[in-house]
Amino acid sequence: MTAFSTLPLKPALLASVETLGYSEMTPIQAQSLPAMLEGRDVIAQAQTGSGKTAAFGLSLLQSLRVETIRLQALVLCPTRELADQVSKALRKLAANIPNVKLLTLCGGMPLGPQLASLTHDPHIVVGTPGRVQEHLKRGSLHGGGIKVLVLDEADRMLDMGFSEAIDDIVGRIAKHHQTLLFSATYPDDIREVSRRVQRNPVEVIVEAPADGKPAIEQQFIDVEPARKLDALAQLLTGERGQHALVFCNMRRDVDAVAEELDARGYSALALHGDMEQRDRDEVLVQFANRSCAVLIATDVAARGLDITALPLVISYDVAHDPDTHTHRIGRTGRAGQTGLAITLCTPRELPKAENIEQVLGRPLPWRPLKLSPPRGKTLNLAPMKTLVIDAGRQDKLRPGDILGALTGDAGLKADDVGKIDVFATRAYVAITRSLANRALERLRAGKIKGRNLRVRTLA
Ligand code: AMP
Q: Ligand 1 centroid to 53 CA: how many Å?
């Protein structure tokens, strides 16, 4: 039985699950939720896309007592992006439970506003370990009432050096709590953390789908270094290239590949750790709202990126180690759709491919690629284009105001308006590419929520 209704969940949570359109549990949910709802500690091997957020989210919301104004659940994530996504998912799951207070606390953000919003303890905190530790130390956050601790993407947190911070946090919160640990990989140090912070955990590993067909198809392509870019460009011309993630091992290659693809007529953007937070946010917004077809990223920058159902992931370079490779390919083939993960491999990179083969335990699926002669400029533009409005939540601007202005005065059909993201001081809206300039002119000429706001397109 995999219906959510077989679980002892509050009606408010079953209602959210229904609103979200989850007709049945994903394997990770079916295997972990019964134990989590009994209060057991759980260690689960789960990739992004497996439905792990809803699994721990439902469990922690089930045990939440809203009338008790104390911090009751703490979710630790490796990056701000992931923390934001987890918060969003939890808010949706909690939509039918009135007055749940949830706060996201991440590093890289000023401390002042966080302190101001902590005058009363929230029920749930989602955050990065360093910043959460700081608040617990300062006494601006109180861990004495915590019933559930979630370590999300625990392997990534260890990679990023958060091991000590996590131990310190565990020492500062209520002694008796449930610990739910999620990790895409199970290296020894994860088992070590589990031994330190968990009691007799239920272990959940989701096997490959029962029908024997892997949800991810892997292909390895042998290519000469000088033809790598041509190979990449060719692989990106198909339907799947409309929403693809490309990994490079090095930051400078990320920029070079993005520039070259852009010059060849692709809507491609780079994402790496050297970028300002605002630029990173803008790139992520454009990739999620389909204004950017191809995102080229380093492994570090792609952590926490949560875009569902990516049809294609390409390793432009073979990953340095098999774990990183596993993480890369885990970005595709999600929620029931088969994804394609292609790895380009030059002769010099063969030893790294062999390492992957060893971990995989079967021969790598090599396939030939016949490079077609250059055809001049191929246009592979994303279907949407993003407009930026220089006003946001602080100006009380809501998605509905933007949609209203576009479909009202500006005369667009709702179908031509895509995702709307409202940040504190700016808002982004995706428009069908061919209509973007018209929408821009009309918005500039008219008003949004009765005001003249500055609007421009994102290149
Ligand atoms: P996650 O692994 O938490 O990043 O979730 C991946 C995606 O799967 C998210 O977009 C969820 O909304 C979606 N999802 C989670 N649970 C289910 C479910 N039972 N059925 C369908 N989609 C789901």
A: 7
The residue whose C-alpha atom lies closest to atom 5 belonging to ligand 1 is: 51
| Mean pLDDT per 10-residue interval, the chain, length 459 residues | 89 95 90 95 86 96 97 95 93 96 91 90 96 96 97 90 95 96 86 93 71 69 95 88 93 96 94 89 92 94 69 95 88 70 97 92 88 75 94 91 86 88 94 94 87 90
3-state helix, strand, coil in the chain (%, to 5): 40, 20, 40
Domains of the chain: 4-205 (3.40.50.300), 216-360 (3.40.50.300), 384-457 (3.30.70.330)
Ligand 1 centroid, distance to 145 Cα (angstroms) = 29
Q: Ligand 1 centroid vs 111 CA: distance in angstroms?
A: 32
Q: Name the residue with the closest Cα to ligand 1, atom 6.
A: 49
**pTM flag (> 0.70):** no
27 Cα to the center of ligand 1, angstroms: 11
Beta strand 312-315 pairing with 244-247:
parallel
CA 169 to chain CA mean position, Å: 24
Classify strands 417-422 and 427-432 as parallel, antiparallel or unpaired: antiparallel
**Residue 451: DSSP 8-state:** B
Beta strand 202-205 with 244-247 is: unpaired
Distance CA 33, CA 55 (A): 6
Burial of 389 (0-12, 13-18, 19+ CB in 10 A): buried
| DSSP β-bridge partners for residue 130 | none
What would the two tokens of residue 35 be?
């134990």
Closest CA to 243 of 373, 375, 336, 334: 334
- Out of 5, 152, 334, 337, mutate this one to test ligand 1's pocket (max ligand atoms within 8 Å of CB): namely 334
